[in-house]
Write a structure and sequence with these properties.
The protein is built from twelve helices and twelve strands. With 415 residues, the chain is an alpha+beta fold. This is Two-component system LytT family sensor kinase.
Length: 415
């Protein structure tokens, strides 16, 4: 075969292969396009994606530095030429034409005062730019405004800007709710610390004093236990700890209580080593043990036994504190757990309030567990008058998000 024919045949083969390749590529593009969904589905995805990216920068309010990052996403969401976020003090984020900052501040002030969206025509230097502004209202309180500039501003953008302002307001409200929950959790821990201070410290110091003359060595040991316990209870390392750390503090607490009760207080510990590193809310087991001593065994003639168990239950650690003391009326415990979280919040002077105040530790632990792990993960209390009390808590072994946000867990109670 002549060389020219061979070259022609080779070129034909290459062209054929290229054509096949192009067909395959086009088919992949078409399949890929179908997998992305219809135009409406893609638009919905893009809207939700931009909203989600903006949301994380708005929880601290529009006055925060993150508002600049949120503005970029909100500008893309509205499809405007220039976008501004304004707080009550002035422009905090401007994406686009910097010359429009004064117009944004002026229009934002007007809509915050009026409480409704407004449109202005011809606000640019050449009077060729339109603007729409909508107030960010937290309830009836203006927290700022958003302003969108375009040429021109159409009716669809006016409606969209008002909706985005309402959505921004809802994100700020969620951020404020998170902040109030954090403040409430800190207040609950302070309430637990206040509960420890007057009752236990007085009894512990009296017990130590009783040994100073008769058994000085025992008195010195109890002083060290007292120091360990108070150092842990009043530490400032955040709102989370480990089961191991909490049990270390409980051991110091029980040593001090045994100095007061003597043989009337017996303790059994059954702890699975694999759950010791589990992270739990700070002061969540110790108040249960103190309740068992104060309300279960102190009133029982002859004292009794407290059993503390921590076991591995798959993805959870299960902790129980049980006493064979005087027990409670189950209805009374239901009232305690249903009472307002902070001491003294209920009506003063009522019998329910007195019982609730006596069991502030039980109620606060239940509230904090539900806050951190969900409503289904509160305390379970089994009790009956004359039959003792068992309190069970079940916590995930995975690190709670709130705990990871507070930084590393201290390695020891001495830290």
């Amino acid at each position: 075969m002549p060389d020219s024919l061979l070259l022609f045949a080779g070129a034909g083969a290459v062209a054929g292969a290229a054509a096949v390749g192009l067909v395959v590529l086009l088919r992949r593009v078409l399949v890929s396009s179908r997998e992305l969904g219809t135009d409406a589905e893609q638009a919905t995805y893009q809207t939700l994606h931009l909203a989600a990216r903006a949301a994380k920068h708005l929880r601290g309010g529009v006055s925060q530095q993150d508002a600049v990052k949120a503005g970029r996403h909100l500008k893309s969401l509205l499809g405007c030429d220039t976008f501004a976020i304004v707080d009550p003090h002035g422009v905090v984020a401007l994406d686009g034409d910097d010359r429009l900052g004064p117009s944004a501040a002026q229009l934002a002030a007007a809509v915050q005062a009026g409480g409704k969206a407004q449109v202005r025509r011809g606000v640019g230097d050449g009077a060729d730019v339109d603007a729409v502004a909508a107030p960010i209202l937290i309830g009836k309180r203006p927290a700022g405004a958003i302003v969108a500039f375009a040429s021109p501003v159409r009716a669809g953008m006016v409606r969209a800007t008002a909706e985005v302002a309402d959505w921004v307001a809802s994100q700020i409200e969620l951020g404020e709710l998170d902040a109030s929950r954090t403040a409430l959790a800190e207040a609950e821990v302070r309430a637990l610390r206040a509960q420890i201070s007057p009752h236990f410290i007085y009894n512990a110091l009296n017990a130590i004093a009783s040994f100073i003359l008769t058994d000085p060595q025992r008195a010195r040991e109890l002083v060290l236990e007292f120091a360990d316990f108070t150092r842990y209870s009043f530490r400032r390392h955040g709102e989370f700890t480990t089961i191991a750390e909490e049990l270390h503090s409980i051991d110091s607490y029980l040593r001090l209580e045994r100095a007061r009760f003597g043989d009337r207080l017996q303790v059994t510990l059954q702890i699975a080593p694999e759950v010791l590193s589990t992270v739990i809310p700070f002061l969540s087991i110790q108040p249960l043990v103190e309740n068992a001593v104060r309300h279960g065994l102190e009133a029982k003639e002859g004292g009794g036994r407290i059993t503390i168990e921590a076991s591995d239950s798959g993805a959870f650690a299960e902790i129980t504190v049980e006493d064979d003391g005087v027990g409670f009326d189950p209805e009374q415990i239901r009232e305690v757990l249903a009472a307002p979280v902070l001491p003294g919040a209920a009506g003063a002077g009522s019998a329910a309030t007195a019982r609730s105040r006596d069991n502030v530790g039980l109620r606060n632990v239940d509230a904090r567990l539900r806050q951190v792990y969900g409503e289904e993960n509160g305390l379970v209390v089994e009790t009956q008058i004359g039959a003792g009390t068992l309190v069970r808590m079940r916590v995930p072994k995975a690190l709670p998000k709130a705990a990871s946000a507070t930084g590393p867990i201290p390695a020891s109670a001495d830290s």
